[in-house]
Specification:
The chain has 263 residues and is mainly α. It contains eleven helices and two strands, in the order H-H-H-H-H-E-E-H-H-H-H-H-H.
């Protein structure tokens, strides 16, 4: 039985070139048209991009077309000025919001709570980035995402808490990792924004869900059957050998292969 080090070395030899090629193929502006990342791409102000990206990522489960349509409804309700809306939302608007149907189990009441949390956060900081900073001696976002969760949700216990995953409960935190990829990752391809300057993209992980998980198992990148945080770290141990400075670029390869059924 081969050990992990030997297996990973073999994967680097066998798969790296293939996944580099696929990542480059799918990571281009054409990707935006059918992906939820199109929503924050409608904005240019940093805070608008952050808020649109965060809310869109929050409801990113299920059919991509449905996600895009429902995220568009959220943007329309905010007058397509998310930051201005968050800063100046009225009690009447919040009351109206409660009655809205948003996306699956993310209700209008949840949307209202998220708006209030964002209002509080932006009254204290000019960017969401500060809530995701990693500390010295941390090599991924395991602790950072839990700190963000605690800060964002605050002390008010509300049903919306279920929409912010907890890595401390072994969640893969797929939606938060996707949001981080959008905000942190820098290249010249025009898909990811790379607008956060104080977080190193080498700490990013591929957002792990059923699709990227299944493709990764078929490629022998991961062995675990669950799509949880332990599996995120297992995948990291391989992909960071492929590219230690930009491991999350392989999200394009794994996701693209899953959607296109090229593999």
């Amino acid at each position: 039985m081969i050990n992990d080090e030997t297996r990973i070395s073999q994967l680097v030899t066998d798969l790296k070139g293939f996944l580099d090629e696929k990542a480059d193929f799918y990571n281009n502006p054409d990707f935006i048209e059918n992906d939820p990342i199109q929503i924050p791409h409608r904005f240019s102000l940093k805070q608008d991009v952050e808020i649109a990206g965060f809310l869109t990522a929050t409801i990113s489960w299920g059919n991509r077309k449905s996600i895009i349509n429902d995220a568009t409804k959220m943007m329309n309700f905010m007058g397509n000025s998310p930051f201005d809306f968050v800063q100046n939302v009225s009690g009447k608007e919040l009351k109206t919001l409660e009655q809205k149907s948003i996306h699956r189990t993310f209700s209008g009441e949840d949307f209202r709570e998220f708006i209030l949390n964002l209002k509080r956060i932006y009254s204290e900081s000019e960017s969401l980035e500060i809530l995701f900073l990693t500390n010295e001696n941390e090599f991924n976002f395991y602790h950072s995402l839990e700190r963000f969760r605690q800060k964002f949700l605050g002390e008010n216990i509300h049903r919306s808490h279920k929409h912010i995953s907890s890595t401390y409960k072994n969640s893969s935190a797929k939606r938060l990792m996707m949001f981080l990829r959008w905000m942190v990752r820098k290249d010249k391809k025009g898909v990811d924004f790379g607008i956060w300057e104080n977080i190193d993209q080498k700490y990013l992980s591929v957002p792990l869900d059923v699709h990227t998980g299944n493709i990764s198992r078929r490629l022998n990148l991961i062995q675990r059957k669950q799509n949880d945080w332990k599996t995120v770290e297992e995948m990291d141990s391989v992909l960071r050998k492929f590219n230690g400075e930009d491991p999350a670029k392989y999200d394009f390869a794994l996701f693209g292969l899953g959607v296109s059924k090229d593999f």
